[in-house]
Amino acid sequence: MIDVDTIVRTLAPAVSELGLELYDVQVSGSGRARILRVMVDREGGVDLEAIADATQAVSPLLDAPPLDDAISGPYALEVSSPGLERPLRTPAHFVAAVGTLVSVKTNARVDGERRIKGTLVAADDDGITVGDRTLQYSEIEKARTVFEWGPTPKPGTTKPAADKKKAKASS
What is the model's pTM? Predict the structure, then answer.
């Protein structure tokens, strides 16, 4: 069993010393296939050097007290950025994403559509509002930001305008 809260409390100061924010810690898989994912970020994003520095800073901490007891069994360490489509798990994640497009999957026990995609209108310590739907954090199974590539094509068109201009010029 991995105690994620203990990991976050222990790693956050080391990551902060590098000018980075510890965005999140996730554990996936089981047995020998477990992955301990440490996500770091900073204003303007992170580069490979920042990821390498964070890896060197957190790796020895994971094998020393108190984390040697918080992490039992084998795992693979992965240090990365949260990416363009970042997971939203904590109230702080949701608050930072207000005004952006999000995808939310509710728990099975919640009435209505289970998958909601829309603009995150509001977020506080209790829950969120996506479009006209309000959810408590306990009702959310999974959520992430959504990155949209380029402009939305005009209705009825299948190719971007630039491709049409090239095709017309070559005729």
Answer: 0.79
Domains of the chain: 4-80 (3.30.300.70), 91-145 (2.30.30.180)
Please give the order of strands across the beta sheet that includes 21-28.
Answer: 21-28, 35-41, 76-80
| Mean pLDDT of the region 133-151 | 93
Q: What Rg, from alpha-carbon coordinates, does the chain have?
A: 20
Contact of 54 with 47, CB cutoff 8 Å? no
Q: State the SS3 of the chain.
A: CECHHHHHHHHHHHHHCCCCEEEEEEEECCHHHCEEEEEEECCCCCCHHHHHHHHHHHHHHHCCCCHHHHECCCCEEEEECCCCCCECCCHHHHHHCCCCEEEEEECCCCCCCCEEEEEEEEECCCEEEECCEEEEHHHEEEEEECCCCCCCCCCCCCCCHHHHHHHHHCC
